[in-house]
Please model this.
Amino acid sequence: MTSLPYHGLRLLTVHAHPDDESSKGAATSAKYASLGARVLIASMTGGEAGDILNPALLQSPKASRDIAGLRREEMATAAAALGAEHVWVGHVDSGLPDGDFDNQTPPGCFYRVPDEVAMLPLVHIIRSFRPQVVTTYDELGGYPHPDHIKNHAVTMAAVAAAADPEKNPELGEPWQVEKVYYNQDLSAKKWVTIHEKMTEAGLESPFADHIEDFKKRDAQRVNWLSTTIDCAEFFPSRDRALLSHATQIDPEGGFFSASRKAARTYWPTEEFELAIDNTGRTPLTPGVDFQETDLFASVTMDDGRKVPAEGMLPASPDQYEDDYDEATGESA
Model:
């Protein structure tokens, strides 16, 4: 087995609910973990307000009586599938109201907690784990869910506070995150492009009924796909992780299977948007897509060495295929 080049590097992925980590950037997490990085998933809420979306579990006594407990079990299985560590931040799921979030989310839920209070557990996590890179969602949450929008605000506040020695010294020694990215795995650019390629090939697209929604979302915020991670070989790990959330995913659902197959064929990468860069390198050109191929490009390792500006990810899976078992999605 070859040495693992990302040993000593740490990635913190901050998500709103259990299952988000498996549908947004999951193959990237699995890839970095397989190459020696520590990957920590922080779930802001426990997903307590989630509905049972898998028909096979509608009659499950445990699902109906203890959805929170079942989702904790699902999360543990998903993290293991990705080779990642996991921590619960401890906030309460806000649910998804039909109208105004400020008035219709319940008291005490994540969305209602002031940012300066909600950030405190995450500040402690950042200072303890000391990630060089953090991923979160953009200011619109990636899509309009109150906890996703809140996830952005609280993560950005926590990153800033974690670096400030004057802020909450009881939460640990200050730590400066070098890079923050917004996860753009659900970008309208991606799914519209896949839809168009399938249509051009004469295939039925699973996204036909969603295209207008994608375009409306893109009109609200044009996402910058600054960084693309070649990670198709870890799509099986990603899919196993997502299917671990059995209350939320119907494995027989046409959209799940068709969308995953389409992405594997027409878009075998995951994308991120650079939001903060404290590496001191020459800045990327704002708005120009696909400028990076490694989230850790230019960060400083614990021993003082710099990751090369072009990154260290293998150019192709063939470079480490001897260490990777495609049947299991795990390192050998």
User: Anything to note?
Assistant: Residues 57 and 247 are 7 Å apart (CA to CA). The beta strands are 10-15, 38-45, 85-91, 133-136, 179-183, 227-230, 269-277, 324-325, 330-331.
